[in-house]
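Sequence only, no structure available. Ideas?
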Amino acid sequence: MNEQRIYNVLFLCTGNSARSILAESIMNKWGNGRFRGFSAGSHPNGQVNPLAFDLLRKLDFPTEGLRSKSWDEFAAPGGPHFDFVITVCDNAAGETCPVWPAMPMTAHWGISDPAAVKGTETERRFAFSQAFKALERRIKLFLSLPLASIDQIRIKERMDAIGKTDDAF
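Reply:
I predicted one. Tokens follow.
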């Protein structure tokens, strides 16, 4: 893989309201122009969870342009070419995904859904913070891969291993 080009990474989840949105923003900050993050859902709920927006703003991560959208938007002709497609929720991992042109490398990085947490606002915010930390850790590990110097099989192996990273803090 060419070290000079910009790599497009699509993060998929079912609702595209929390985990995949967080991952898109994290990738766009830490990718330093070498990686561009996108997110989508198989059944988007149409809005970004307000706690996701609040957390990203509080941590000074980009929020401009973030919105809940269907993966169909990217599967249509003329959509961006993806180098990597990463599912971040177990539902999306088991669903039949669109056929992506150029067959991007795929991985599954299951993260517990912070939007599903019931409880006090503090408990819910803590769940978003934990999901963010897990995604940020995995994305930083991914960004450290020497893409230009290892073959695709090794990249795939390492992407899968990142998805099994222990997220205990």
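The mean pLDDT is 87.
Hope that gets you unstuck.
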